[in-house]
Amino acid sequence: MLELIQKRTQLIKAKAAELGFDFCGVSKAEFLEEEAPRLETWLNRQMNGRMGYMANHFDKRLDPRLLVEGAKSVVTVLLNYYPEKTVAEIDGYKISKYAYGTDYHFVIKDKLKDLLAYVHDEIGDVNGRIFVDSAPVMDKVWAKKSGLGWVGKHTNLITREMGSFVFIGEMILDLELVADGPMADYCGTCTRCIDACPTDAITDPYVVDGSKCISYFTIELKDAIPDEVKGKFENWIFGCDICQDVCPWNRFSRPHQTPAFDPNPALADFKKADWEEITQDIFQEIFRRSAVKRTKLEGLKRNIAFVKLND
C-alpha cells in the first residue's frame, strides 16, 4: 500500500512540473491547530481592516476537511512571477509585480484544472477541489507545511531557491499521499522588511496589520485614503513590493517562464504623465486581464491623485 501511495505522490509532482509549476509539495489535510489562536487574535485586533470577508468561514479556514469531504491531502503548488524587468522603476508610478500580466487566478486555475483532470485519469475516482484565493484556504500555511518554504517576518512565503515572488495554489483531495515535512525558518535576525515598511504595517515579526499596508490602501480600501499615511506611499499606486524587494532571499529570484505574466508592452514606457492622463479605453486595453482591474479606473485615479499630492 505504501508503494502505491508513493507512486501516486510522484505522479502528481511530476505532472505539476510538466504543467510548469516551479514547486509542488504535499501535507496531510488536518486541523491547523497552531494557526487557530493566531488567526483569532489577528481578527480580534481588527488587523483585517475593512476586509470583512477575512472573518468569514473561520472554521473552514482552519480545516480543509470542511471544504472537501473526506479530505486526506493538500497538494500545494508554487509558480514564480518575478519579472525580467521592473515597470516604471525610475520615472513613474509603481504597481506590484504580481499585477504586471494576466491575473494569476486565471493562469494557476487553468493549470490546476489540468492537474486535477490528470489525477482523475491516472488514479481514478478522487474527490477533490482546486483553490486559488477562491475559498477560505490559508495558502501560505499549507505551503509551509508542505516543505516548500517558510513564512517570513513580512508574512510572505519565502523559498530558498527563488525567494518570495511566487503565487500559491492548492488541490485538496480525499486521496492519501506522502506528506512532506515543514521547512525551517531562515529569516534569522534579519529585520530588513520591518525596517523598510513606510507605514509600519509589520507591527511585530510575523505579524502584519493589514489595515496599515499600502496594498490594502490601494486595492482593498474603497473609501478615501486616510491622512495619516500621506507622503508614505513612495509612488506605489497598486499594491506594494517594498518588504519583498528588500528581502535578502530575493537575490535568488530569477525571471519567470510564464509568458502570461509578462506586462503589456505599453507599460514599459509609461511615465507619470501617462498614468495621470489614462483613459477608460487605455485602462481597459492594458489591464484587460490584469489584477489591476480590481480597483477600476476610479480607484486607480484616486491612488494616483493621493500619491501625486502627498509624496
UniProtKB/TrEMBL annotation:
<dbReference type="Pfam" id="PF13484">
    <property type="entry name" value="Fer4_16"/>
</dbReference>
<keyword id="KW-0479">Metal-binding</keyword>
<feature type="binding site">
    <location>
        <begin position="240"/>
        <end position="241"/>
    </location>
    <ligand>
        <name>cob(II)alamin</name>
    </ligand>
</feature>
<keyword id="KW-0846">Cobalamin</keyword>
<dbReference type="InterPro" id="IPR004453">
    <property type="entry name" value="QueG"/>
</dbReference>
<dbReference type="Pfam" id="PF08331">
    <property type="entry name" value="QueG_DUF1730"/>
</dbReference>
<feature type="binding site">
    <location>
        <position position="197"/>
    </location>
    <ligand>
        <name>[4Fe-4S] cluster 2</name>
    </ligand>
</feature>
<feature type="binding site">
    <location>
        <position position="61"/>
    </location>
    <ligand>
        <name>cob(II)alamin</name>
    </ligand>
</feature>
<keyword id="KW-0671">Queuosine biosynthesis</keyword>
<feature type="binding site">
    <location>
        <position position="133"/>
    </location>
    <ligand>
        <name>cob(II)alamin</name>
    </ligand>
</feature>
<dbReference type="GO" id="GO:0046872">
    <property type="term" value="F:metal ion binding"/>
</dbReference>
<dbReference type="InterPro" id="IPR017900">
    <property type="entry name" value="4Fe4S_Fe_S_CS"/>
</dbReference>
<dbReference type="GO" id="GO:0051539">
    <property type="term" value="F:4 iron, 4 sulfur cluster binding"/>
</dbReference>
<feature type="binding site">
    <location>
        <position position="157"/>
    </location>
    <ligand>
        <name>cob(II)alamin</name>
    </ligand>
</feature>
<keyword id="KW-0004">4Fe-4S</keyword>
<feature type="binding site">
    <location>
        <position position="193"/>
    </location>
    <ligand>
        <name>[4Fe-4S] cluster 1</name>
    </ligand>
</feature>
<feature type="binding site">
    <location>
        <position position="240"/>
    </location>
    <ligand>
        <name>[4Fe-4S] cluster 2</name>
    </ligand>
</feature>
<protein>
    <recommendedName>
        <fullName>Epoxyqueuosine reductase</fullName>
        <ecNumber>1.17.99.6</ecNumber>
    </recommendedName>
</protein>
<comment type="subunit">
    <text>Monomer.</text>
</comment>
<keyword id="KW-0963">Cytoplasm</keyword>
<feature type="active site" description="Proton donor">
    <location>
        <position position="133"/>
    </location>
</feature>
<feature type="binding site">
    <location>
        <position position="187"/>
    </location>
    <ligand>
        <name>[4Fe-4S] cluster 1</name>
    </ligand>
</feature>
<feature type="binding site">
    <location>
        <position position="213"/>
    </location>
    <ligand>
        <name>[4Fe-4S] cluster 2</name>
    </ligand>
</feature>
<keyword id="KW-0560">Oxidoreductase</keyword>
<feature type="binding site">
    <location>
        <position position="222"/>
    </location>
    <ligand>
        <name>tRNA</name>
    </ligand>
</feature>
<dbReference type="GO" id="GO:0031419">
    <property type="term" value="F:cobalamin binding"/>
</dbReference>
<feature type="binding site">
    <location>
        <position position="168"/>
    </location>
    <ligand>
        <name>cob(II)alamin</name>
    </ligand>
</feature>
<comment type="function">
    <text>Catalyzes the conversion of epoxyqueuosine (oQ) to queuosine (Q), which is a hypermodified base found in the wobble positions of tRNA(Asp), tRNA(Asn), tRNA(His) and tRNA(Tyr).</text>
</comment>
<keyword id="KW-0411">Iron-sulfur</keyword>
<dbReference type="GO" id="GO:0008616">
    <property type="term" value="P:tRNA queuosine(34) biosynthetic process"/>
</dbReference>
<keyword id="KW-0170">Cobalt</keyword>
<dbReference type="GO" id="GO:0052693">
    <property type="term" value="F:epoxyqueuosine reductase activity"/>
</dbReference>
<feature type="binding site">
    <location>
        <position position="243"/>
    </location>
    <ligand>
        <name>[4Fe-4S] cluster 2</name>
    </ligand>
</feature>
<feature type="binding site">
    <location>
        <position position="247"/>
    </location>
    <ligand>
        <name>[4Fe-4S] cluster 1</name>
    </ligand>
</feature>
<dbReference type="GO" id="GO:0005737">
    <property type="term" value="C:cytoplasm"/>
</dbReference>
<dbReference type="InterPro" id="IPR017896">
    <property type="entry name" value="4Fe4S_Fe-S-bd"/>
</dbReference>
<feature type="binding site">
    <location>
        <position position="190"/>
    </location>
    <ligand>
        <name>[4Fe-4S] cluster 1</name>
    </ligand>
</feature>
<dbReference type="InterPro" id="IPR013542">
    <property type="entry name" value="QueG_DUF1730"/>
</dbReference>
<comment type="pathway">
    <text>tRNA modification; tRNA-queuosine biosynthesis.</text>
</comment>
<feature type="domain" description="4Fe-4S ferredoxin-type">
    <location>
        <begin position="175"/>
        <end position="207"/>
    </location>
</feature>
<comment type="similarity">
    <text>Belongs to the QueG family.</text>
</comment>
<keyword id="KW-0819">tRNA processing</keyword>
